[in-house]
Amino acid sequence: MKTTDSPDQAPPRRRRRPRATAAAAAPAEIRLAGDATVRGVAIGPAMLVLESPAPDIDATARTDDPDHELARLAEAIERSVRQIERLRDRLAILPEDGQIEIGSLLEVYRRMLGPSRLQRGIHDRIVRDGRTAELAVREETESLAQALLSDGAASGGEDAAAAQRRAGEFREIGQRLVRNLGRTPFRSFSAVPPGTVLVAEQLRPADAALIDPSRIVAVATEEGGSTDHTAIMLRALGIPTVLAAHGLTARARDGATMVVDGTTGQVVIDPGEETLAIARRGVAEHARERQALGRLRRLPARLTSGEKLQLQANLELPAELPLVAQSGASGIGLLRTEFLFMNAETMPDEDRQAAIYAEIIGTMAGDTTTIRVVDWGGEKHSEALERAGLHQEGDTINPALGMRGLRLLLRYPAVLETQFAAILKASVAGPVRVMLPMVTVVHELREAREIYHRVARRLRRKGLPLGDSLPPLGIMVETPAAALMGDALAQEAEFLAIGTNDLTMYTLAVDRASADVASLYHPLHPAVLRLIQAVTEAALRQYRPISLCGEIAGDPRVVPLLVGLGLRSFSMTASAVPRVKKVVRALSFEDCRRLAHRVMEASDVAEVTSLIDDFATGS
């Protein structure tokens, strides 16, 4: 099957192999380090696939014929849409996880090419400022990307990585439009022979739709990072991957044997016999591990001492639902609803939200779905929310400490009422819980609950069969204030969920998006652990369910400590569930309790980390 991105694709530019001579000595082994992005080890011949340079854009160019430039833009948009549709057609040959993840991103691209803020901005730059189509595209996409990056850096926490990915979406569409405006061909992987290690300077996210896992055994690139969209796409394909291996394209050559270790981040060119032997064992071990994790899917997450844990999944987009099912997660512990408002020009109404929630809840087949109402604020932007009046007023020196989360929703309650109504309508499809973000004081929770019950009364008057009891209304604990007020909040909330990413940021006064202080960000800091312990004990005293969601929830090394602190419910990325379950099924509660006791006596991160590592290795 021919795998093409557009009819204008050029075959990949490949470097010529130097001629070998009979007397030539075996090349020396070359080792490079990069970002370990997709676990696994692969061995194969390298193939360098380099992309033709994008057209140069004259920053001083102006046009006196904007209609002509608008016509060129319309043609480039139409061409881009056709290319994306052809990429979608290719998804059937990919693994199911890959189809879901890549298909979701292609849908985002398709929407961006339709009537959108992006298209209006490009249009205005052509008509108002006399820009050429290429220059207008570059300036508008870069302006939107920079705005997102500034928002993410200001908000910190998990928002920074998400902002990087969203900025990449604008830049990717911008590059595609510019290439189509200049009729510059895209690269193709159709000539890649089976068993190949794909080597490139950088892969664009849409390139992932051109990768056939039956032919490409590993990917190694010069640039990129483990949190960008390309990395997410490659994880969905399950191909061992190392990104950001600097110096790779200068030293690799077509046909050279390469070892790619996506677990350690090592790339080896021309490996020696000893390295090859180790790599072959790694290939076999990874295959056995994947089979073992697959068998865990239907087994309970139960300690050897009999206690059962609840391992749930975080969900950011509905397209990820099949990944949740495949992971063996027992429900959705955190459904982020921001996707409804991103890249949207108008607010999703009550019925549209209800339909989306109901589909997700129904798919879980009786397992609980916990829906967090929209967590907005700081300097993040959504055209739909801003048109609805949900925006920050005045200047904000520190957006992370400004109007965000529940405090912002209470200022503009119409958005909250609509979302509450939609969730209540959808609750007839199955078990659901409602979660409030960024609660810091009791009266915020009380005020939100009054709105919740008022909306429920309205729906009952309209004849909606809500039953005698409403879905539980709970809170996220993301600040030291909420953790220290755990007893009071637990008396009011019907469940609690600890959000460790933001809790760490607020406790340590560290924005991990800032290079100057990122090294100080550590969720295993004793201060953070003591707050987790405090709020867990407060919830248990009030007989309230409590869970933990955040990066450490999906870390198999850290889960024994969290179990020892009294936690029994965790929500994590779907891909982490099998590995956490594997660890959990080998633990006893008494061992976890002893680990927690030792850790809580520690006074610095290094000591905590050492204790956790020793426990994991059995030393």
From TrEMBL:
Keyword Glycoprotein annotated: no
Reaction it catalyzes: L-histidyl-[protein] + phosphoenolpyruvate = N(pros)-phospho-L-histidyl-[protein] + pyruvate
Domain PEP-utilising enzyme C-terminal span(s) in chain numbering: 292-587
Source organism superkingdom: Bacteria
InterPro entries noted in UniProt: PEP-util_enz_mobile_dom, PEP-utilizing_PTS_enzyme, PEP_util_C, Phosphohistidine_dom_sf, PTS_EI, PTS_EI-like, PTS_EIN, PtsI_HPr-bd_sf
Main location as per UniProt: cytoplasm
Gene Ontology BP annotations: phosphoenolpyruvate-dependent sugar phosphotransferase system
Record: residues binding Mg(2+): 478, 502
Keywords: Cytoplasm, Kinase, Magnesium, Metal-binding, Phosphotransferase system, Pyruvate, Sugar transport, Transferase, Transport
Cofactor: Mg(2+)
One Gene Ontology term of the molecular function aspect: metal ion binding
Region (Disordered) residue spans: 1-26
Localization per record: Cytoplasm
Domain Phosphotransferase system enzyme I N-terminal: 34-148
Binding sites annotated in the UniProt record for phosphoenolpyruvate: 336, 372, 501-502, 512
UniProt xrefs under Gene3D superfamilies: Phosphoenolpyruvate-binding domains, Phosphohistidine domain, PtsI, HPr-binding domain
UniProt-annotated catalytic positions: 229 (tele-phosphohistidine intermediate), 549 (proton donor)
Enzyme class: transferase
Claim: Transmembrane helix is one of the keywords in the record: no
Segments forming domain PEP-utilising enzyme mobile: 193-265
Name of one Pfam family that matches: PEP-utilizers_C
EC assignment: 2.7.3.9
Entry GO terms, CC: cytoplasm
Job description of the protein: General (non sugar-specific) component of the phosphoenolpyruvate-dependent sugar phosphotransferase system (sugar PTS). This major carbohydrate active-transport system catalyzes the phosphorylation of incoming sugar substrates concomitantly with their translocation across the cell membrane. Enzyme I transfers the phosphoryl group from phosphoenolpyruvate (PEP) to the phosphoryl carrier protein (HPr).
Family the entry assigns: Belongs to the PEP-utilizing enzyme family.
Protein name, entry field: Phosphoenolpyruvate-protein phosphotransferase
Species annotation: Gluconacetobacter takamatsuzukensis
